[in-house]
Amino acid sequence: MSGCRVLPRLPLRRAFSHTAKHSKPWLPTGAYQSLSSPRGRALETYTRPSASVRSLVAYHATTKLQLLSTATDPNTSTSALPAPAPYTPPQTGLLSRLPRSWVPYAELIRLDKPAGSYYLFFPCVFSTLLAAPLASPVAAPAAVLGTSLLFLAGAVVMRGAGCTINDLWDRNLDPHVARTRLRPIARGAVTPRNGVVFAGAQLLVGLAVLLQFPPACFFYATPSLLLVAIYPLAKRVTYYPQFVLGLTFSWGAIMGFPALGVDLLANGAALAAAGLLYSSNVAWTVLYDMIYAHMDIKDDAKAGIKSIALKHDKETKQVLTGLALAQVALLAGAGIAAGAGPAFFIGSCGGALATLGIMIKRVNLKSVKDCWWWFVNGCWITGGVISLGLAADYVVRYVERDERDEPDGEAST
Predict the structure, then answer these.
(1) Cβ-contact 247, 282 below 8 angstroms
(2) Residue 262: what pLDDT?
(3) For residue 37, which phi and psi values (nearest 5 degrees)?
(4) How large is the angle between the packed helices 115-131 and 368-412, nearest 10 degrees?
(5) How far apart are the C-alpha atoms of 234 and 107, rounded to whole Å?
(6) Could you report the per-residue pLDDT of 132-155, keeping only the tens digit for each?
């Protein structure tokens, strides 16, 4: 086009001079309302009759201007695309009851979305219940319950710290993803400086919780901090950041053993059980986070964020099936190494296989709402049946130990 000019880095087109006729003769009257916003509004501004004859319209030449089919009728008007909804403070739920200045920090740790804390907590429960019969003597129910409650507190705190660190790394990416653009750091409600201070405070609280466990737990837990820090970077360099997340979130599958006094370095069966349980939880984490990643798959592609959902979009169900089978097989291996009984294999392994199969069959990966439902509820469904099977096995073995010890006690009297 003879009227074109090329400026550095931005293709420009010069508007036609206004005459008595419309400046864009190939567009019907009122068609600018049909153009994508904000380009439609820009064109309308510079081409209406009152504009200067030498008006310059700048827009990306690579963008295809599209008209709705109704735009061909001069008497038909269409509305421009709606602007993204602005942030509105929570009106219901727990966050609505907090002081206004606390809300951004509560949102930063996802206080209103606790599913992540549960996913971090379940591996701790699995390892605690699996390790309890291996302790010498067998851990008492009070010890198992107390240890589990400490793990719950630690999971809530460390999940919040992990979310804060993640949002600090992603502060320049989150504004480009619809689901994350209103996160506190992304929208400017929390400054990066305050985010760093807040993350540090949470890590100190996590340390205080950790120090309530036996001293050996400190040395087992410390390496996990490196994984917490590098996970947000993984999504920039690999299509499998979920694997790094699995290594991070599954760390609790090891911690239950030293928490109950089981020395992994001196007990080969316990070490094998812990390793297999950890691997099983890694497969589970990749599985559920692959479903989670499908909620952002379009925005991730635009923002250049990598995920396993993008890499294997066309064969997601097959990958999920393979992960489920790997998870159950490794879980069964952990039970064999720990000497678990039928209650574990039927309840935990059989239950996990059934619930994962139902989820994989029913989840609609094209529906954000459906992916979110299965992500939240799948945590309790699968994690719950595994925990119940482990708990049943622990109770059976604890009772059997009492029955074996009772005759010895009577003979001594």
Answers:
(1) yes
(2) 94
(3) -80, 140
(4) 20
(5) 23
(6) 999 989 999 999 999 999 999 999
Answer whether residue 19 shows pLDDT above 70: no
User: Does residue 36 carry a pLDDT above 50?
Assistant: no
Beta-bridged to residue 14, according to DSSP, are 56
* Amino acid making up residue 333: G
pLDDT in tens, 208-222: 999 999 999 999 998
Do 213 and 259 meet the contact criterion of CB atoms below 8 Å apart? yes
Q: Can you name the CATH fold of 101-400?
A: Farnesyl Diphosphate Synthase (1.10.600)
- Yes or no: say if 259 and 132 are a contact pair by the CB < 8 Å rule: no
Lowest mean pLDDT among 79-93, 321-335, 365-379, 394-408: 79-93
Map out the domains of the chain as residue ranges: 4-72, 101-400
**Strand order, beta sheet including 56-57:** 4-7, 10-14, 56-57
User: What are the b/e assignments for 395-411, b being 16+ CB within 10 Å?
Assistant: ebbbeeeeeeeeeeeee
Tokens of 333: 């291996």
| Confidence (pLDDT) at 89 | 87
CB contact at 8 A, 250 and 285: yes
Query: Is this model's pTM higher than 0.90 or not?
Result: no
Residue from 377, 396, 283 nearest 339 by CA: 396
Question: In this predicted structure, what is the pLDDT of residue 94?
Answer: 87
How far apart, in whole angstroms, are the C-alpha atoms of residue 109 and residue 160? 4
| Mean of per-residue pLDDT scores for the chain | 81
